[in-house]
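Researcher: Sequence recovery benchmark, item below. Answer with residues only.
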């Protein structure tokens, strides 16, 4: 309902599964004082890695996150960073 002070677009990855959860913000683009209604494009150059992967005990998931301030409302959309656009399945590669 109120005009945001800023919007942050973030390229992130995180791990899920057993053990500690790791989170890395790779790149952040800040849009200061955006209008209440607008459409803007944000481009990220994807890094060479780490690749998106799923294993028996742990997975690594990439995403684009939008955070609106004040209030820190956010939304995330998952993406794949890997050769051929598909995540690496560690079990099929013989790695558990």
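Model:
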């Amino acid at each position: 309902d109120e005009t945001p002070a800023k919007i942050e677009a973030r390229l992130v990855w995180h791990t899920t599964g057993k053990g500690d959860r790791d989170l890395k913000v790779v790149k952040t683009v800040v849009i200061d004082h955006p209008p209440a209604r607008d459409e803007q494009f944000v481009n990220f150059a994807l890094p060479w890695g780490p690749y998106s992967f799923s294993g028996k005990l742990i997975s690594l998931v990439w995403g684009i996150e939008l955070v609106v301030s004040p209030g820190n409302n956010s939304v995330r959309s998952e993406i794949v960073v890997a050769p051929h656009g598909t995540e690496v399945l560690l079990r099929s590669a013989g790695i558990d």
